[in-house]
Write a structure and sequence with these properties.
three-stranded antiparallel β-sheet; D-Maltodextrin-Binding Protein, domain 2; Arc Repressor Mutant, subunit A; 15 strands; five-stranded mixed β-sheet; elongated; 3 domains; alpha+beta; about 20% strand
Amino acid sequence: MDKLRALHYFVAAAEERSFTGAARRLEVSIPAIAKLIAAFERNLGTRLFDRTPQGLALTADGESYLDACRPLLEQLAAAEEAVTGAVARPRGVLVVGAMAQLAQHCILPALPRFRARYPEIQIDIRVVNRVADVDSSAVDLFILMGWPANPDLVLRRIAQTRQVTCAAPAYWAAHGVPQHPRDLERHACLTYRNPQGTLIDLWKYVRDGEEESVAVGGWLMSNHRDVILDAVLAGEGVARISDLSSRPYFASGRLVPVLPDWEMKDAPPVNLLYRPNQRRSPRVRLFIEFVTGVFRELEAGREQGVVARLAERPDWYGRRSGRASTAGRQ
């Protein structure tokens, strides 16, 4: 029996939770997966999976074996890539977990440059809001906004966003332009619910040491940034929007920022997260260098004199429900 192939089949089946998913990933037949894993279980003298109508579930022995196997396979893959990378172009599949707005508006426009440099690397982008949204072992690196706490992963901040208060020209023409943050109390402010479930309805501002906090409200809230963005572009209200992922809308005049003398607080940083041993993979290393450069360019494209200051983690961050405006009273 080919034990190395059996290990690869076992790990793929465990991560995909089905023989069908493992076969699709490895580009082999389902019977080939099932037959080799069954032989592998007989050889080990224990069941690795429970077969259920919902798919595969690891047994206790399977969980233990998977934890022991993964580091060995990752070390083997890194060793193979280190050797082949010296004589061949980097190749293979790179799995990237990224927030939708970062994937669509920041990373995707730059990907043709990466493809031109490394045509044999395939990019598998999986839209996530948190590391916990997927099996992190199946993702090579994450690109997320916020203040994630994942002690098992290396965290690198690669950019700092700025939040901009904005609306469509038609909205400002119909409702007037606010001159002070408190003026927002009479506007339809469309609010975003973060991945932890907190509605960000407390907009904080600072100007020359003066701070203002405004509890805003409006007719629409959503946990998807583009739902809010589309409504704002349609002239239906005001939003706080990240500058790095929305620059074309400001450049074209479809969104008009206000309160230019006031800086919005609680703007989340952009982070890279990956397992420590992944840095040895040429694919991962090259993509880390590339995407870090992409966000460096985006930050450099801000208007002259505009600086995004590193924001501290706000007190409402990490709450699983409720509103940011009531965080201090809970």
